Task: inverse folding
């Protein structure tokens, strides 16, 4: 009987994730599956939920809505700030910066640059996006005590 995916199991998957219009966002590379400890928040909640109870050899598709992925887009996370906050740094649309906010450190993406002001977007780039996963489960096993203690999977021959 093969093991099923449950919290604190080491899982390896091959996957591809696409937008609704079919644009591939990410995928595991041939022969290099994604390894993780299930139930530790290493994946977006929607994908973790879809994996629960699956076994080696299972292949499936999962549609993950924004609320179980990177959240909905919030216009309040888009703001215009003085250009001088960036000092002498070059700023162009698409660049990412870490910003200190009332809620702590946050990644922002520059969306527009004017002479004396910069518009930044604190939404995750995939906020508001439905994600479609194609997944194949290639390994499920008990995590070692050391893996659970360290919070990540150790590859063969690795123990730090």
Result:
């Amino acid at each position: 009987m093969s093991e099923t995916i449950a919290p604190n199991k080491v899982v390896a998957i091959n996957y591809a994730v696409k937008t609704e219009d079919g644009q591939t966002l990410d995928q595991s590379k041939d022969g290099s599956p994604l390894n993780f400890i299930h139930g530790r928040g290493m994946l977006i909640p929607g994908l973790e939920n879809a994996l629960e109870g699956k076994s080696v050899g299972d292949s499936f598709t999962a549609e993950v809505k924004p609320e179980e992925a990177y959240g909905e887009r919030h216009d309040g996370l888009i703001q215009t700030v003085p250009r001088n906050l960036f000092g002498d740094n070059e700023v162009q649309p698409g660049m990412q910066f870490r910003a200190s906010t009332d809620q702590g450190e946050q990644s922002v993406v520059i969306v527009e640059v004017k002479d004396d002001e910069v518009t930044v977007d604190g939404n995750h780039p995939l906020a508001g996006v439905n994600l479609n996963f194609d997944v194949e489960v290639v390994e499920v096993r008990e995590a070692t005590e050391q893996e659970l203690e360290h919070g990540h999977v150790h590859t063969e021959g690795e123990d730090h």
Q: What stands out?
A: Residues 59 and 136 are 4 Å apart (CA to CA). The chain has a mean pLDDT of 91.
